[in-house]
Amino acid sequence: xxxxxxxxxxxxxxxxxxxxxxxxxxxxxxxxxxxxxxxxxxxxxxxxxxxxxxxxxxxxxxxxxxxxxxxxxxxxxxxxxxxxxxxxxxxxxxxxxxxxxxxxxxxxxxxxxxxxxxxxxxxxxxxxxxxxxxxxxxxxxxxxxxxxxxxxxxxxxxxxxxxxxxxxxxxxxxxxxxxxxxxxxxxxxxxxxxxxxxx
Length: 199
Prior knowledge:
Elements: H1 4-24, H2 27-42, H3 45-49, E1 52-55, H4 66-74, E2 78-85, E3 88-93, E4 100-102, E5 108-110, H5 112-115, E6 129-132, E7 136-137, E8 143-144, H6 150-155, E9 164-167, E10 188-190, E11 195-197
Parallel strand pairs: 1-2, 1-6, 6-9, 9-10
Antiparallel strand pairs: 2-3, 4-5, 7-8, 10-11
EC number: 6.3.3.2
Cofactor: Mg(2+)
Pfam families: 5-FTHF_cyc-lig (PF01812)
C-alpha cells in the first residue's frame, strides 16, 4: 500500500499541474465549453428525472453553472446549493443570485439572514442528483478537489441511490487521481464531449 505522504505529495503535484493548465485556458473557451457540458447534462436521464438537484455555484474557470442554476429554477426543479460553514457543507434552497454574497474561498453563498430560514434549509435526504466540481477526475470516478475535504465529508452522507456527477472539461480528465481511503468516487462524469459512467 502506498504511504500516506506519497499519496498527498502526488495529489499536490497534480493540483499544481492542473491549476497551471486551468489558468492558461481562455475565459471565452470556458464559457463556450460550459454550455456544451450543460447540454450533455440535460440529455442525462437521471438529471432529467430529478426533482431536487444539488449544484455548486461555480468559481471562475470551473464549469460555469450560473445559467444552469437559473434554468433549473425556470424548469421547476428544486435547486439546492452548498455553502461552507466551519469544516462542513450546508445545503440551501436556491431561488436567485440576489440572495447570495461572496463567502468562503470567494464562492457565492446565501447571505446570513437567509441561511437558517426554515423553508430554505435542505437536507441530504431530499437530493435526487448531486453535481460536483473538481480540479481533476479520472474515468474510475476519482476526484481531486481543492484539498479541504468539504465534499468528501458531505458525500459520505448520501444514499448510494443518489448519483454523484462530476462536471468537468475533457482536459481535467487524467489517467489516475491518487485516492485516500476517505476520498469519495463519482458515479458519472459529464464533460463537453461525453458522459462517462465510472462503474
